[in-house]
Amino acid sequence: MPAELPIPAEKMPRHVAIIMDGNGRWARRRGLPRTMGHRQGVLVLRPLIETSCEWGIPYLTLYAFSSENWARPKEEVGALMGLIEEFFFREVEELKARGARIRILGELSRLPERARGFVERAVEMTKDNERLQLNLALNYGGRAELARAARLLAEEVQAGKRTPDSIDEKALEEHLYTAGLPDVDLLIRTAGEKRTSNFLPFQTAYAEFVSLPCFWPDFGPEEYAQALREYASRQRRFGTLEAK
Questions:
Q1: Rounded CA separation 52/98 (Å)
Q2: Alpha-carbon span 13 to 203, nearest angstrom
Q3: pLDDT per residue over 20-50, tens digit each?
Q4: Residue 81 and residue 107: Cα distance in Å, rounded?
Q5: Contacts of 7 (CB under 8 A, 6+ apart)
Q6: DSSP E strands, the chain
Q7: Closest Cα to residue 92, out of 110, 118, 74?
Q8: What is the CA radius of gyration of the chain?
Q9: Which helix (H) or strand (E) holds 91?
């Protein structure tokens, strides 16, 4: 576990989001099946969560499975669902002990019943924790999330619960999966990619984006610290002239 903070505490982001990319390429370079890359990638999660707690980052959001990932080969999707089950089964007690509260971003109904059961159990077991809000995006798509929020608002208008002119950014935010959470400060993507891939389009509007060259299975505390140092070097203006 890192002995000291990589950046001053006052510069630490409140909300870090990560696009965990490169599992397949990590495996291919080693002559392994893609599923082994995904399995190795899961092993990164525990030290990542421990490090986030140690460094006092209160909100961590991970892009675990996108709504587009269903288009991958059936065998790979099945393996990913199995890893989701395994993660929640093996790690929930540790997460609870660490003070992490799990929140799911995405539509769980499409997940296999067994996987959904493990996820819902973990959410229930950690609901009273407060040290770290761990958000896991499962069957998540940013455009679908915005469309869902629009439908919910339209239903409220139709039911006479609100008027159309009451719909503003705050109203939209309140109907997102992340309702009540702060916007993302730092968005990290591994494997050298520099696109957001339909991940949290509303919540990352003013996030600092850091692309790291390492594949996700090679991501560790030093890579995390590198991203945080890059974040701390930025001047955040939020559309104004004055750095904040």
A1: 11
A2: 14
A3: 999 999 999 999 999 999 999 999 999 999 9
A4: 14
A5: 225, 228, 229, 231, 232
A6: 15-19, 59-66, 100-105, 132-140, 186-189, 208-211
A7: 118
A8: 18
A9: helix 74-98
Query: What domains can be seen in the chain, in order of their start residue?
Result: 11-140+183-232 (3.40.1180.10)
Backbone angles phi and psi of 60, in degrees to 5:
-135, 125
Amino acid at 13: P
- pLDDT band at residue 117, thresholds of 50, 70 and 90? very high
Which residues are identified as catalytic? 21, 69
Q: Which residues contact 37 (CB under 8 A, 6 or more apart)?
A: 22, 23, 24, 25, 26, 27, 28, 215, 217
Residue type at position 127: K
Residue 124 structure tokens: 């229930």
Q: Please, are residues 184 and 203 in contact by the beta-carbon 8 Å criterion?
A: yes
Q: How far apart are CA 27 and CA 20, in angstroms?
A: 14
- Return the pLDDT at 239: 74
What is the separation of C-alpha 100 from the centre of its chain, rounded to a whole number of angstroms? 14
Are 135 and 61 spatial neighbours (Cβ–Cβ below 8 Å)? yes
Q: Provide the residue type at 105 as one letter.
A: L
Could you tell me the pTM of the whole model?
Answer: 0.94
The bridge status of strand 59-66 relative to strand 15-19 is parallel
Assign 155 to helix, strand or coil.
Answer: helix
Cα separation, 3 vs 55, whole angstroms = 9
DSSP 26-74: HHHHTT--HHHHHHHHHHTHHHHHHHHHHTT--EEEEEEEEGGGGGS-H
| pLDDT > 60? residue 183 | yes
- pLDDT tier, 237 (very low <50, low <70, confident <90, very high otherwise): confident
Residue 122 makes CB contacts below 8 A (sequence gap 6+) with: 88, 92, 95, 102
- State residue 133 phi and psi, 5-degree precision: -90, 110
